């Protein structure tokens, strides 16, 4: 039986497994943070965040879907916290669900802005330009009409090129990290924990099953509707999120908590480096699975719905 970090004190943290496991977590996180810093300079279009690829589907449906998913995620988090207390946030599952809720919160705000504000902004700018043209070009009504159409097209094109800003960037980051985290959460729970730990001390209730399934379901529904890209470089956000969770676990265990929520976090076993290496490596297929789903979206949906799904704008 392994002693807890609280029981052993500082001796628990000076064993050889600790720096090895620390390097296994720290090295990918350092590269991930460097990549994130570089990717922050790349432009992100607002239209990519709130529009859809479905020809006859209004973006308002994506807005409503994101608002509905946000409410459901918050409700699930509220119910599990009310049942078990804030202690549940020691688990990666609740971190993932909170991240999914943050994504849908940001997505709702950005969708609302993209759906309403640009049209009003474009319309007001167009009206001002029309008034100026009518004042300066009173000679020919046909010329005024032609220039009005030209101004409207230019305004629409300028709006399409509007940058997403800080809020949109955070939304994209949350989307990429939440996608990989949801796959990791559900795969570990349904393929590892349930088959091997299910018994008298571990039961799957409706709430537990829902919180380990609806995170991915809501994201997949959003992916089917949205126009967001899913670059492989987004893997860095997923890695940074996982590293932040491990840092949180090590910190609380060094301070006050005398147990690990997952047995593979235990550092006193000689197999700890292999467990941590496995945790680091499993991030790759989890993110890759979601990337393949997005790739299938752009390859299969245009064939299945050639008149409804627009592959690119």
UniProtKB/TrEMBL annotation:
Keywords: Membrane, Transmembrane, Transmembrane helix. GO terms for cellular component: membrane. The chain crosses the membrane at residues 16-36, 63-83, 95-116, 173-198, 204-225, 237-262, 274-293. The keyword Transmembrane helix applies. It comes from the Eukaryota. This is Uncharacterized protein LOC103489896. It comes from Cucumis melo (Muskmelon).
